[in-house]
């Protein structure tokens, strides 16, 4: 995004005042990077629909409060071409899912909601008219297929799992090409639907990195947990690793569990309490049980230390594709339910054994179970969702809380490696740590230690 911001400075012939420079105006946020160049905001959104959905909620709210009139949104990025070679541009006319449905489906308070994934036809025409015959690339337009999975969901055969043949893959790719699909990516469906729902003029412009009719590989990174699992499982297989154990450690919203406490997931469920991960492979729905290893859960619970300044709980984890509506938050850009509706839903899922919410466990549990890999999910709650939607704790406190899952998992690793009987002390992370800027050592500040201690005591 910084590179694009500098590019716009040149294109718009803008000059910064002497002694100033472009800077990330959201640099203190955990969410994304944001640059402002004249009337243009340039913002990163991460990979996948859950990630871009968070960004859209927050940017739409930002523009609303800034009283911005008639904004135009563009998603620019990369994709796999279907019958279009690498290096050429594609302007999306509409977005469809892996079954060619032209709508975005999300679960809000346990119920399915569908929103049309429409893009602005006039904006598509304007962009196509701006294509220059002298460009060293071609600019095409057509439907974009948006998937929740990079490997199986896009018909790739080089992931960790593949239950179809080369012939099956080619039949599918040719079929969707005949239906007008010219590329595949992982964000356009949510982007188009949320912009259309907010009545915002929007377009998707991507460059093809390869023609999928000619192969699967193009050297992409691993920003989503699905991509990561496919590639790490392949790596371990070729390295002949035997009996690996996978942990997902991170943050979540507690359901009846206060901030700072740990949660070990017993199983993962979706927004409708279904205990399976559903993905579309070659146009067909596939369901995989989202099971986690019960023995591993028991081992982790036994490693909880009564002297820890937090409690360690276990229970079901609800995994959603949307951070705001999907998790019953009322502070997003859209909300069609009441506080009473939200509380009824949260209390209902708590009664069903759900103790926290996050956005990765379903795919993690299902893919690990499918690969017969022992796995567990350990998260720290940042807040109790029965008490509100906003995380109010200071940044120093949140940073310390996020080390707590690491400590529990480290105890398991030490036990497996036979490194003494001593459990990792809650204060061990207060030892000197290397500075990012210098190689000297610095103690954690007294203010940070005091804040963490006070916050933990208040939750006890």
UniProtKB/TrEMBL annotation:
Positions contributing to phosphate binding: 31, 75-78
Record Gene3D superfamilies: Nucleoside phosphorylase domain
Family affiliation: Belongs to the PNP/UDP phosphorylase family.
Binding locations of substrate: 154, 156
A cellular-component GO term for this protein: cytosol
Pfam families: PNP_UDP_1
InterPro entries on file: Nucleoside_phosphorylase_d, Nucleoside_phosphorylase_sf, Uridine_phosphorylase_euk
Protein name as it appears in the record: Nucleoside phosphorylase domain-containing protein
């Amino acid at each position: 995004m910084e590179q694009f911001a500098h590019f716009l400075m040149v294109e718009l012939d803008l000059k910064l005042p002497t002694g100033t420079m472009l800077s990330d105006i959201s640099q203190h946020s955990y969410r994304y990077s944001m640059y402002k160049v004249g009337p243009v905001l340039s913002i990163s959104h991460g990979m996948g629909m859950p990630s871009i959905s968070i960004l859209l909620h927050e940017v739409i709210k930002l523009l609303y409060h800034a009283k911005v009139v008639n904004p135009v949104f563009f998603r620019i990025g990369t994709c796999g071409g279907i019958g279009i070679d690498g290096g050429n541009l594609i302007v999306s006319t509409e977005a469809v899912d892996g079954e060619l449905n032209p709508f975005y489906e999300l679960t809000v308070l346990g119920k399915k909601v569908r929103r049309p994934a429409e893009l602005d036809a006039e904006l598509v025409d304007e962009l196509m008219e701006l294509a220059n015959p002298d460009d060293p690339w071609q600019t095409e337009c057509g439907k974009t297929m948006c998937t929740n999975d990079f490997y199986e969901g896009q018909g790739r055969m080089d992931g960790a799992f593949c239950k179809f043949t080369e012939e099956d893959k080619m039949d599918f790719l040719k079929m969707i090409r005949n239906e007008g699909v010219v590329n595949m990516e992982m964000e356009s469906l949510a982007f188009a639907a949320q912009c259309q729902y907010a009545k915002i003029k929007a377009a998707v412009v991507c460059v093809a990195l390869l023609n999928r009719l000619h192969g699967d590989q193009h050297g992409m990174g691993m920003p989503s947990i699905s991509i990561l699992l496919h590639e790490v499982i392949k790596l371990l297989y070729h390295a002949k690793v035997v009996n690996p154990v996978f942990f997902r450690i991170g943050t979540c919203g507690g359901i009846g569990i206060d901030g700072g406490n740990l949660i070990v997931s017993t199983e993962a469920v979706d927004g409708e309490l279904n205990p399976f991960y559903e993905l579309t492979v070659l146009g067909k729905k596939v369901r995989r049980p989202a099971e986690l290893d019960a023995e591993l859960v028991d081992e982790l619970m036994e490693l909880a230390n009564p002297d820890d300044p937090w409690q360690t709980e276990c229970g079901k984890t609800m995994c959603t594709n949307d951070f705001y509506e999907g998790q019953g938050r009322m502070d997003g850009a859209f909300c069609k339910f009441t506080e009473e509706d939200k509380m009824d839903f949260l209390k209902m899922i708590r009664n069903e054994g759900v103790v926290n919410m996050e956005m990765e466990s379903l795919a993690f549990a299902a893919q690990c179970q499918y690969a017969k890999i022992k796995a567990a999910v350990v998260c720290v709650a940042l807040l109790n969702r029965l008490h509100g939607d906003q995380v109010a704790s200071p940044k120093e406190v949140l940073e310390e809380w996020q080390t707590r899952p690491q400590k529990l998992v480290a105890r398991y690793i030490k036990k497996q490696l036979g490194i003494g009987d001593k459990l990792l002390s809650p204060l061990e992370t207060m030892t000197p740590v290397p500075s990012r800027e210098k190689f000297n050592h610095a103690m954690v500040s007294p203010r940070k230690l005091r804040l963490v201690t006070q916050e933990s005591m208040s939750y006890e």
